[in-house]
From TrEMBL:
GO terms for biological process: establishment of competence for transformation. The lineage of its organism: Bacteria, Bacillati, Bacillota, Bacilli, Bacillales. This is Competence protein ComK. InterPro entries: ComK (IPR010461).
Length: 101
């Protein structure tokens, strides 16, 4: 489940929405918007539609990234050998080199 706040979570009037329950976000006025959720309920918020939509989009992007990571898993097979390797920490990654005997 993915949730997003309509404003900063530190504010007392902050409302959290479950991503999968939001049906539409519509502007009501200059700095107000309506969020329609499943079940036919509507929440009138003291936040611009653009701001609420941006938070919704960020949460949707996060959900998409996480689901792609789950799908794109891979496995590998390691065969036993008598070779020796040295591991050194590079600038960003580890460098693995086969030691010559």
């Amino acid at each position: 489940m993915y949730w997003f706040p309509h404003t900063s979570p530190g504010h007392d009037e902050c409302v959290w929405f479950a991503l999968h329950h939001v049906d539409a976000i519509m502007p009501e006025g200059h700095n107000t918007s309506n969020v329609y959720v499943s079940g036919g309920h509507c929440f009138k918020l003291n936040a611009a539609e653009k701001e609420v939509s941006m938070r919704y989009d960020r949460t949707e992007k996060l959900a998409s990234r996480i689901s792609k990571r789950k799908e794109n898993t891979f496995s590998f097979v390691m065969e036993r050998t008598t070779d020796t390797y040295s591991v050194q920490k590079g600038k960003r990654n580890y460098i693995i080199e086969r030691k010559k005997e």
